[in-house]
Design goal:
With 272 residues, the protein is of the alpha/beta class. The protein folds into 2 domains: 6-224, Alpha-Beta Barrel (TIM Barrel); 229-271, no CATH class. The chain contains 13 helices and 10 strands. The protein has an 8-stranded parallel β-sheet with strand order 6-5-4-3-2-1-8-7. Strands 9-10 form a two-stranded antiparallel sheet. A hairpin with a 2-residue loop joins strand 9 (248-250) and strand 10 (253-255). The two termini are 21 Å apart. Substrate binds at residues 69, 121. Mg(2+) binds at residues 121, 147. It holds the Pfam family HpcH_HpaI. Residues 12-215 form the HpcH/HpaI aldolase/citrate lyase domain. Keywords: Lyase, Magnesium, Metal-binding.
Length: 272
């Protein structure tokens, strides 16, 4: 693996694949997802974690790519997970992060060129999200709606229940000059409408991507986090109206620099 994480920084869809199912790694990588998450944590039973670790190490050593979700610092598997990742630059999703020092510790243990995607999935993490996101080497925040919902005693599938928490992660990411964060999972695997609703809600709050639990969710998520035809047309009109300047009038509205910058950002998404 290389230390170039530019694609991961702009990924719309991150598809989970259990580390103890190596026959699924290549299929996940070819699913159309922008990147995959090789999981050693929640998707893998305790007695299968050594096998998962071995499978992931083999995949990465042979040139495969993917983010690795390790077990958290308070588990008996944490040390072995980090030891497996000691030989090459890697992208690591760290669960149950509550403070910046947890991110620092992982980065200190990984080879140079590695990066961390902290899972913001506790109340403490949401309240401290800006300091967590500000650690150098943090590539992008990930919102963990399932664990946060459990802690708060609310339905993780209810978009309105954690809208404030989601917005705090978006704001923290922007304040730390990170790419827009990745939203959490939709556990309704076969409900395309629900995936669409959740994705559009996340887009509206300022997220840049979403975790996927099944390949069938990937095209829905990719479409939702890509600029629509209408968005692109509007952006092209704004940029054309602004010309070499930053202030113009379009359809009776003043188009200032912030609006022009947003339009240019949309067009960059299309060109990427």
């Amino acid at each position: 693996m290389s230390g170039d994480w530019s694609g991961l920084a702009t990924a719309r869809s991150l598809l989970f694949v259990p580390g103890n199912r190596p026959e699924r790694f290549a299929k996940a990588a070819e699913s159309g997802a922008d990147d995959i998450v090789l999981d050693i944590e929640d998707a893998v039973a305790p007695d299968a974690k050594p096998e998962a670790r071995k499978n992931i190490g083999t995949w990465l050593a042979n040139g495969g790519s993917g983010v690795v979700r390790i077990n958290d610092q308070g588990t008996p598997w944490y040390e072995d997970d980090l030891a497996m990742l000691a030989d090459w630059p890697c992208a690591v999703m760290v669960p149950k992060v509550t403070a910046p020092d947890q991110v620092w510790e992982v980065l200190d243990r990984l080879p140079r060129g590695s990066c961390v995607l902290p899972l913001i999935e506790t109340a403490a993490a949401v309240l401290g999200a800006r300091t967590i996101c500000s650690v150098p080497g943090t590539l992008r925040a990930v919102f963990g709606n399932a664990d946060l919902g459990r802690e708060l005693g609310v339905d993780h599938a209810d978009p309105s229940a954690m809208a404030a928490a989601r917005s705090m992660v978006v704001l923290a990411s922007a304040a730390a000059h990170l790419p827009p964060p990745v939203d959490g999972v939709t556990t309704a695997l076969t409900d395309e409408k629900k995936v669409t609703i959740d994705s559009e809600h996340a887009v509206g709050l300022g997220f840049g991507g979403k975790l996927c639990l099944h390949p069938r969710q990937v095209p829905v998520v990719n479409a939702a986090f890509s600029p629509s035809t209408e968005d692109v047309r509007w952006a092209e009109e704004v940029v054309a109206a602004a010309g070499d300047g930053s202030v113009a009038a379009l359809d009776g509205n003043v188009v200032g620099k912030p609006i022009v910058d947003r339009a240019r950002r949309i067009l960059l998404q299309v060109r990427a």
